[in-house]
Amino acid sequence: MSDDAPSMPAELMAHAADARARLARLLAKYQRERHPGDASNIDRYRGRPVAGEVDLLGHDAVGVYEVLVEASHYGHEDLDRVKKQYEAALQHLY
User: Fold this and answer.
1) Integer Cα distance of 73 and 6 in angstroms
2) Beta bridge partner(s), residue 49
3) Rounded to two decimals, what is the model's pTM?
4) At what angle do helices 9-34 and 76-93 cross, to 10 degrees?
5) SS3 48
6) Could you tell me if 12 and 75 are in contact, meaning their C-beta atoms sit under 8 angstroms apart?
7) Distances from the Cα of 2 to the Cα of 6, 7, 17, 22, 81, angstroms
8) What is the rounded distance in angstroms from the CA atom of residue 58 to the CA atom of residue 23?
9) Alpha carbons 89 and 17: distance in angstroms, whole number
């Protein structure tokens, strides 16, 4: 690992959850731009409708941060940030 790489498991989990939240938002934004006003989610991502994948990614990201808030130095502001990303993703879809 490089000197700037996270070394604690909580940090690795947080980085992975942040990536999931961002991917959820970007997938939803892409869906909206490609099919404006169409919530049918014609496109698929990893074999799932885009909306299903966005929901799974966002839900997982929030769940990880809920655990991190209870078990590490991460606080409610971190959880709130990820929840806002998830909400923004859902707003892009619906």
Assistant:
1) 14
2) 44
3) 0.81
4) 20
5) strand
6) no
7) 9, 9, 21, 24, 27
8) 8
9) 14
